[in-house]
Design brief:
By secondary structure, this protein is an all-alpha fold. The protein is 62% helix and 0% strand. It is elongated. The two termini are 23 Å apart.
Length: 87
């Protein structure tokens, strides 16, 4: 029973830490007004910017890859520790 309480407590601490860190990092993601944009140019001239504008994807991709690596590391750690416990 005591072991079960420790696991629940540990899970609660980890969940709370993740939730708070996500909230902390999300504050930089709020939209910021940059003012009105320039009107589009003449479509017959060709060229122009990339399709979809210039939306930054590097920071979101970095966060996604970091969380994926952390999840994979945690899963591997748990599998290895369970295997050692069975031996």
């Amino acid at each position: 029973m005591k072991l079960m309480k420790l696991k629940v407590k540990k899970l609660l601490y980890i969940s709370l830490t993740i939730l708070l860190s996500m909230g902390f990092f999300a504050t930089g993601l709020f939209a910021q007004d940059t003012g009105p944009s320039e009107p589009p140019g003449d479509p017959s001239e060709g060229g122009g910017g990339p399709i979809g504008g210039s939306a930054p994807i590097a920071s979101g991709l970095t966060i996604l890859l970091t969380l994926g690596a952390a999840y994979g590391g945690a899963r591997t750690y748990h599998l290895v520790s369970r295997k050692k416990d069975k031996e």
